[in-house]
Design goal:
Length: 128
């Protein structure tokens, strides 16, 4: 009986630690000014990866580093390129919404008839 109580207590402690760790690893995105606030982590990652490929850049092209480490502070607006990216995103959303939108149920940020790659084609600073 004693070992059963210890086993249950150990399992409870282990589950509590695991739950706390998993919550601390996932922080909901914040400071989203163009993308939908209810975007899933998976969809946000997918969109960001498409930007990386379309412009041939890494995350640090738009996101500033944290003051206390080499990690990126994704919520920070310190890097001016981030606001340029937001304006470009607003432009592509506007184009897709006004000229190509075929499904009113889909948020315009998720439409991809015109994308970053349409103009950039792997170049952060396209000529045309």
């Amino acid at each position: 009986m004693r070992y059963k109580k210890i086993s249950i207590a150990f399992t409870f402690i282990l589950l509590t630690i695991m739950a706390g760790t998993s919550y601390s690893l996932y922080r909901p995105p914040h400071n989203l000014k163009v993308l939908p606030p209810d975007i899933t982590h998976e969809r946000l990652d997918s969109i960001m990866e498409s930007y990386n490929k379309a412009l041939g850049v890494k995350c640090s092209f738009c996101h500033a580093k944290r003051k206390d480490s080499d990690r990126l502070d994704f919520a920070s607006d310190e890097n001016p390129a981030k606001e340029v990216a937001r304006n470009m995103l607003r432009m592509t959303i506007d184009i897709n919404k006004n000229y190509f939108r075929t499904d009113s149920v889909i948020h315009p940020a998720y439409l991809n008839t015109v994308t970053c790659n349409t103009c950039h084609k792997g170049d952060a600073y396209p000529e045309h």
